[in-house]
Amino acid sequence: MLSFGEALAYATKQAMEHDARVFAYGEGINDPGGFFGSTAGLKEAFSEARCFDVPNSEDALMGFGIGASLMGYRPLFVNLRVEFLMLAMNQLVNHAARLPAMSGYQYTIPLTVRAIVGKSWGQAAQHSSALHSMFANIPDLQVVVPSSVEDAPRLLLASILSDAPTVFIEIKSLYDCKALVHLPIEPLPLGKAHVVRQGSDITCVAISDMVGFAQRVSEQLVADGIEAEVLDLRSLAPLDSAAILNSVSKTKRLAVFDIGWEPFGLAAEVARIVSTSAYHRLDAPLLSIARRHEHTPASCFLEEQHYANEEHAANSIRALVRG
Amino acid sequence: MALTNLPQQLLRDLHEKMFLIRAVEERIKVEYASRRIRGPVHLSIGQEAAAVGVLHACRQSDVCVSTHRNHAHYLAKGGSLAGMVDELFGLDTGCCKGYGGSMHLMDLNANLILSSAILAGSIPIASGIAFALKNEGTKRVCIGFLGDGATDEGVFFETLNLAALMKLPLLFVVENNAISTMTTFSKRQAVPDVVGKAERFGVRGMTVDGNDVLSVYHAAQDILQGMRQTHEPFVLETVTDRLCAHVGPIVYPSGIGADDTLQSRWMREPMLILNEKLRSEFPDQLDASLARERNLRESVDQVFIRGAQRFDADALRLQLPAAPPAQDVRRV
In the β-sheet with A194-197, what is the strand arrangement from edge to edge? Predict the structure, then answer.
């Protein structure tokens, strides 16, 4: 059994063993906690030359990773909170994502950027926002959103081995999970969704820890005779549109479970995909399950109301399916 | 250094590169009017000595990054002229296959691997390149060009710190033309002292006359030689003048720059200074020098004429690929 953090550390170690051009860096990467265990043991295994602490300079550090990428390295830039990537957006968006195109695709930027979304425990507005939709809007930037201890190391390995710049978004709630992980880690193909639960009554498209949320909601619905299909997208860019359309063509109903905000978010994108396809008419309105469109409050009483609620989601699906 | 001790060949080479860049940019002015070049062009006229002096002193294997004002760096580093001209015309034979344009010139064969049009954008990237070069165990260095405008940006100071801390073989060449678009240096920084600031971060630096290609060349030679031993960063400030407007092939707007006139700048421009030296040191070479200029101008014209012909014939046939060839790529 490995924890989420241990599984990520294992995948990183395997990538670094596999390819001498892989190195990891981040603010406090070699602290005793080791990014909740996800970078633990790397310095010991590969020396500080390949796993090193850095100044608090996100903008420069993102550019640093791009420069090393241009020279053939495969850097892994680890960030404790996704909000700190806002300090590096010029390098991430204007450079990492765009340089391959600006060069006429003469080179690639095989840079992987890990970032953690700190969900709950009073993390408040600046330590718990989910910014994946913002990243997924940018051409040529891969966005990976793992949902489980089993998938995360396989997707991380795939991200590091991939030639495109990748933002790898981990939600802190998953760090409490443990699971049996098959070793050595086999990379998963990016852009392939995973049917984690089969069903015929409604398609639940989900990402990150909302996959587990959707699974638990689906189990509640069994007693009502409702069989939900849960589709884990695994990555937002590339996005497995075919898997969404395939499932919807069977169920004719659709619910989208997002870790982020609704406006211009995952539900909006899934709705675009389904509604612009002439052959996939829904029998019911699309149901969107997401956090409230507000900045996360710190208070545990308010925080509970901010995030989506399983009971409420189950009731909404019941109402939708019964028409 | 007494000029009489200079090898004639060095002056000839510097003159050739300086004149090539000037001739190309003068031709861009002409071609812009024909509307075959569509897009912002940031001319280097007046600032060529920094590019030629530093990049003539470096090795082909040294890696260079540049900015929106990259024409001089690109050509001085040995970038393909045809690749540049075709890129300006938006052709798929351009150095960025038509995806980059004037502001993003690059040539992997010449090791000028990117030009960013975001102010200070290429600065931190240069640190990652320098890290890779240091890890290689060779004596290659990374050279990053920037203007004084980019030294307003925080990432310049972040990168100075990173480069000093990690002891990266990174040479920043700050072309200080004392103006950013139309805002003078003294209106932007309380202490407009590039080298002084770099030194406080632990990065050595020096200032040279950026209009005198020989001064720049000799300074760069010493600096690069030292850097190949120490692997440590350096900031070379070249004090120079921009003789055109920030963007577009138009003349410098009047009333900008405050303390001197455009005329006085043209009296100390780098081609003039270099030609004076050639004339005084090697008067017998005057005919040869003029002949060289004629030949260069002719060959530049030929490249532009071929590009223009292709533009007229092919422009309508160019198509975007169905999907960007994201995986079908090669690395530097």
Answer: A194-197, A228-232, A202-206, A254-257, A287-289
- The enclosing domain of A48 has a CATH number of 3.40.50.970
pLDDT, tens digit (0-9, with 9 covering 90-100), for B38-80: 889 999 999 999 999 999 999 999 999 999 999 999 999 999 9
My answer on whether A41 and A103 are in the same domain is yes
Does residue A186 form part of some domain?
no
Domain count, chain A: 2
Q: Is residue A184 part of a domain?
A: no
Nearest to A106 among B131, B326, B329 (CB): B329
In terms of DSSP H, where are the helices of B1-151?
8-33, 48-57, 71-76, 81-88, 122-136
Mean pLDDT of A49-64: 98
CATH code: domain of residue A210 = 3.40.50.920
In a domain, B185, yes or no: yes
pLDDT at residue B257 above 60?
no
Interface test with B, best of A102, A108, A111, A239 (most B CBs within 10 A): A102
Number of neighbours of residue A121 by Cβ within 10 angstroms: 13
Mark which of A120, A155, A179 sits at the end of a domain.
A179
Tell me, what DSSP letter sits at residue B251?
Answer: B
Tell me whether residue B128 is in a domain. Answer: yes
The answer to whether residue B251 is domain-embedded is no
Q: Is residue B149 part of a domain?
A: yes
φ, ψ for residue B288 (rounded to 5)?
Answer: -60, -40
Chain B hits for A94, Cβ within 8 Å = 116, 118, 121
Q: With contacts defined as CB-CB under 8 Å, which chain A residues touch B332?
A: 70-72, 107
| pLDDT exceeds cutoff 70 at A165 | yes
Q: How far apart are CA B104 and CA A188, in angstroms?
A: 35
pLDDT of amino acid B330: 40
| Residues in A lying within 8 Å of B, measured between beta carbons | 49, 54-55, 57, 59-73, 75, 90-91, 94-95, 99-108, 139-140, 163-164
